[in-house]
Amino acid sequence: MPLCHYIYLGFISMSGSDKCLQGQSPDEQDYLRYFRSYAFISHQRSMLEDHKRTSAYHRAILDNRRQFEGKVVLDVGTGSGILAMFAARAGARKVYAVEATSMAEQARKLVTANQLDNIVTVIQGTMETVELPEKVDIIISEWMGYLLLRETMLDSVLVARDRFLKPGGAMYPSHARLLWAPIRARESAERKADFDRVMEHWEWFLIDMKNHYQIDMDVLTLPYIAEQKQNYLGGGEWADVHPDQLLSEPLASPLLDLHRITIEELKAGVTGEGSVMLKSHEPIDAICGWFDVSFRGSPEQPADHPIDLDTAPDAQGATHWGQTIFMLQPPLRPQPGDQLALNFAVFRREDYERLLRVRLATRLVPSGTTVQQEYSVD
Amino acid sequence: MPLCHYIYLGFISMSGSDKCLQGQSPDEQDYLRYFRSYAFISHQRSMLEDHKRTSAYHRAILDNRRQFEGKVVLDVGTGSGILAMFAARAGARKVYAVEATSMAEQARKLVTANQLDNIVTVIQGTMETVELPEKVDIIISEWMGYLLLRETMLDSVLVARDRFLKPGGAMYPSHARLLWAPIRARESAERKADFDRVMEHWEWFLIDMKNHYQIDMDVLTLPYIAEQKQNYLGGGEWADVHPDQLLSEPLASPLLDLHRITIEELKAGVTGEGSVMLKSHEPIDAICGWFDVSFRGSPEQPADHPIDLDTAPDAQGATHWGQTIFMLQPPLRPQPGDQLALNFAVFRREDYERLLRVRLATRLVPSGTTVQQEYSVD
To answer: What amino acid positions of B are annotated as catalytic residues?
Structure first.
């Protein structure tokens, strides 16, 4: 029997199956589920034409040419080679551009076509296994995933740092953080309606199976409810949120310092808590998460012109990262005078490490309504 | 950088990346790309509620109860357990229901809820590794994928046959074949238009990258054209074809006899050729492929009531398999008096064995236009 032609939206979380065959290594799962898409030129193109993203890196490097001139640079996950080429244009003495997929072949062609092959060397491999002839002054990388940490390419960046960055060397970007805010969002009611429709369909299905085949499938109803709740309401969903949807100022996580954070700290998760003043007391449909990064250089090699790349809700439209929204069903209903206390924890899932678990606890203060839910960011 | 939220239609072929990490076994790739979806109840449900499919099996088993009474049966890839339950209802003495995924747990619950657990034993495992206490009289299985052979679950069925079927035992279904016909299809012009739009976008992208970043990406144009041609026009696509679209009677492959075909023969591919009389001389937009199977029992144990399950274009709508259509761009343009000669070959791809290569050669006779193309069924 075939796989049904499901429309797979990269973000709808579907639980139920995470058992792997014996002996299957994380690397091997990884390749199939993650790396493959980066080998497509169309995927590279859609990232390149995200101008908020690409121009932030362009300015971070070219506005800070003094920090790049004469230096040795490593580009982790170079893709098309674009950041490596920016670094070469900013006057780097040597750039190593490492790419795990066959996109490395395209990067090599581009570097040559742009006459930068005397500076930029493209190497196909992973940061865990590649060898470089020397240590580097600067590591550049565009590693951020949905909600900052999905994909966990950051691990490879930290491995690169630990293996190849000279003491006092600079990470570009240098800092990152997560931000959260309560929002109004019609998606929440829509997903609930989708779920209700699916359950109605299920009731008919049960009757159908009894009538046609005299088979009683009701014992599957509870597992099916759990499966579909997770599917429709249990995942973080990509959205292009308008600033008008925000119901408070954002709550930020502690700043992650890319020069100092360890892989163990990363594995332990990014957590935080705080309170926000609600702008209005309409129902809160969802919690919206996003990230920003900044390019400040290292303490020993500060950037002349610090640059920020921020993916907050924007009236002009989202970067390709969008924001990630987590439904509150039913909506939270603040009383007059309530503030919102929010507690968040973002962890990697042990089975598929590029997927995230997000625990959100929301409490209305002082009226006391508390909701805690764990979501999957697939 | 995140995976863009691509809409993945299970069928649009995307070439470009098939390099695997060292040491990755076919089984391990397999699990991730194939088995996982069967662990979802919603997936099982959508197959069960395909009544053309499920009722064909119901009749094939229940109408042939004389062939099942007192027999030992094996259900390969039992999923929800439905076929095993049909066999038990038809009077089987014992049914072994083997399922590779965690759906086996649900099957076990269903078998118990329907009071058939004295007859049906659900075993979680693969046919390649499972042990059974005895040989079986009958193997039942719903193994067919898109274009019959995608997914290649048939391999597991043949392994089961070779390991467990008694001499003279019966396979349900017993026979299968592929069928082909030229069709009119607006998808062909639509995909061409999609491709043209993407290439127009690419031209703007090149200008954009030069203006914003002074980077020349033109060296990627030829690989990008190849990538997108394969994406839009190089794959077999799922469609629900109406009989009015057919431009001739179908051409059928030789009949595959499930009692006799070997795994080596299967690997060598399903090929055939022939000519069809065209009903009209309008342009031929695509070649449409589908399959049928029949339940005739074995020569030693023939079915009292042979049943056919056919997935041909149907005015009442397709089974969940649909048909598979292969675009001819530009369309073939028959002259008055032309017939269509068609030569087809369907092979497994060496890298991902559940994916197919389909070679179609079409020739208009006598006017002479010949087109040969190799497609991917992903």
So the answer is: 142, 151
Banded model confidence at residue B8, pLDDT cuts 50, 70, 90 = very low
> Residue B247: its pLDDT value, please?
98
Indicate yes or no: CB of B205 within 8 angstroms of CB of A39.
Answer: no
Q: Which of A114, A143, A215 sits opposite B1 (nearest CB)?
A: A143
Are the C-beta atoms of A304 and A64 separated by less than 8 Å?
Answer: yes
Residue B153: per-residue pLDDT: 87
| B1 contacts on A by Cβ (under 8 Å) | 47, 53, 77, 79, 142-145, 151, 153
> Is the CB of A47 less than 8 angstroms away from the CB of B3?
no
Amino acid letter at A263?
I
ipTM of the prediction? 0.88
Q: Which of A99, A151, A300, A374 does the annotation list as catalytic?
A: A151
Dihedral angle computed from the Cα positions of residues B167, B172, B177 and B182, in that order, rounded to the nearest 10 degrees: 180
| Cβ <8 Å between B4 and A24 | no
Please tell me the distance from the alpha carbon of residue A30 to that of residue A351, in angstroms, as a whole number: 11
DSSP per-residue string spanning A287-301: EEEEEEEEEEE-SSS
C-beta separation of B329 from B233 below 8 A: yes
Residue A57 CA to residue A174 CA, distance in Å, equals: 12
* Per annotation, catalytic residue among A128, A142, A227, A265: A142
**Phi, then psi, of B13 in degrees rounded to 5:** -75, 130
Checking if the pLDDT of A327 tops 50, the result is: yes
Residues from chain B that touch A125, judged by Cβ atoms under 8 A, are none
DSSP for B168-191, written as a single string: EEEEES-EEEEEEEEE--HHHHHH
Q: Give the separation between CA B86 and CA A306, rounded to whole angstroms.
A: 70
- CA-CA distance, B300 to B354, in Å (whole number)? 32
Residue A151: per-residue pLDDT: 77
Q: How far is B55 from chain A (nearest CA, A)?
A: 8
Q: How far A275 CA lies from chain B's nearest CA (Å)?
A: 29
Under an 8 A CB cutoff, do B109 and A220 touch? yes
Q: Collect all residues of chain A within an 8 Å Cβ-Cβ radius of residue B14.
A: 40
Residue A133 contacts by C-beta under 8 Å, 6 or more apart in sequence?
none
Q: State which amino acid sits at residue A246.
A: L
The count of other CB atoms within 10 Å of the CB of residue A304 is 10
- Secondary structure element (H or E) that encloses residue A27, with its range: helix A26-30
Beta-strand ranges (E) seen in A21-119 are 72-76, 94-99
Are the Cβ atoms of B40 and A16 closer than 8 angstroms? yes
**One-letter amino acid of A189:** A
Site of tokens 């042979």: B306
The sign of the dihedral angle between the CA atoms of B3, B8, B10, B11 is negative
Q: A143 and A172 in contact (C-beta within 8 Å)? A: no
The average pLDDT across A123-143 equals: 97
| Cβ <8 Å between A321 and B2 | yes
